[in-house]
Amino acid sequence: MKPLWGIDLGGTKIEGVILKNAEDPEVLLRTRIPTEQAGGYEHIISRIKSLIDQMKEESGMTVEHIGIGTPGTVDPLTGLHKNSNTTCLNDKYFHADLQKALGVQLSMANDANCFALAEARMGVVKQQMPEANVVFGVIMGTGVGGGVVINGRVLPGRQGIGGEWGHNFLDESGGIAYTGRKGVVETILSGPALEKYYHSVSGEQKTLKEIAQLHQKGTDKFATETINRLTHFFGLGISVVINILDPDAIVLGGGVGNIDLLYTEGVASAQKFVFNNRLDTRFFKPALGDSAGVFGAAMLTA
């Protein structure tokens, strides 16, 4: 079996990994360089090429197929990149241009899909529920995203938006998203949205971590209101995913996913809204940390 090569393109860093193979994903090489995205589109492509060249030199290996995780996704109809917060990639033929520059086959998926794939095939789901066929990976941080993995394969969807539950409508109180849509999941469950809500009811600026700690201490009614809002709307929002996809397992990533109450009160909230008299879906904390993106990218080639 051939080694698996993966690249995780982030806003500040580009990370590369070589795994031994799909069955034995031992890390043979892992390295990173700054993205330098201020240099623009062509510069980002040159930075990725530089990293691949460095990996070839350090490993002494050649490569024919590379997986890459990116912000945003490729539109399957037009081939143009879209929905990326690294905005210079949008409306460009990023997949085709990068493949030409590298001279190898590329498999590309967004970062949430790579997270879901890594946790399904190498991480917590593999470790604790290896029989799972359908896995939904959740990213709740600065934004809200998701990825679907079925039988060890990413499900990108006809429009390349598979798993994007963060842009489902949730509640009018969420306000306007960057897309112009009102009240979507991201406007309520993202870290900045929760901090904004706390400020609106308390008049004070605090980080989400501080808000969660104040709620646990029971000393701040506004912190409790904010966390109760999170667990209620998490349950409502994720119940839509469960009702449609009915996954075996859901993995919660991102900074908001670190709040333990999601696994108790949040799951209890979901149980109220799912179309069943019980909730059998398993919820997991991720096992791979910041490795998930680059490991998932490598697994795209398996």
Please describe the topology of this protein.
Blueprint: E1 4-9, E2 13-19, E3 27-34, H1 41-59, E4 65-70, E5 73-74, E6 81-82, H2 94-102, E7 105-110, H3 111-121, H4 124-128, E8 134-140, E9 144-150, E10 153-154, H5 186-189, H6 191-202, H7 208-217, H8 221-245, E11 249-253, H9 265-273, E12 282-284, H10 292-299
Q: In angstroms, what separates the terminal alpha carbons?
A: 9 Å
- Going across the biggest sheet, name each strand in turn: 3-2-1-4-7
Biggest sheet character: 5 strands, mixed
Rough outline: globular
Given as residue ranges, the uncertain stretches (5+ residues, pLDDT < 50) are none
In CATH's first tier, which class of the largest domain applies? Alpha Beta
Keywords:
302 residues, alpha/beta, Nucleotidyltransferase, domain 5, five-stranded mixed beta sheet, 10 helices, 20% strand, globular
Give your account of this protein's structure.
There is one protein chain. This protein has helices at 41-59, 94-102, 111-121, 124-128, 186-189, 191-202, 208-217, 221-245, 265-273, 292-299, and strands spanning 4-9, 13-19, 27-34, 65-70, 73-74, 81-82, 105-110, 134-140, 144-150, 153-154, 249-253, 282-284. With 302 residues, it is of the alpha/beta class. The chain has two domains: 4-116 and 290-299, ATPase, nucleotide binding domain (Nucleotidyltransferase, domain 5); 132-286, ATPase, nucleotide binding domain (Nucleotidyltransferase, domain 5). The strands form three sheets. The protein has a five-stranded mixed sheet with strand order 3-2-1-4-7, sandwiched between helices. Strands 10-9-8-11-12 form a five-stranded mixed sheet, covered by helices on one side. The chain has a two-stranded antiparallel ribbon with strand order 5-6. A hairpin with a 6-residue loop joins strand 5 and strand 6 (81-82). The longest helix has 25 residues, at 221-245.
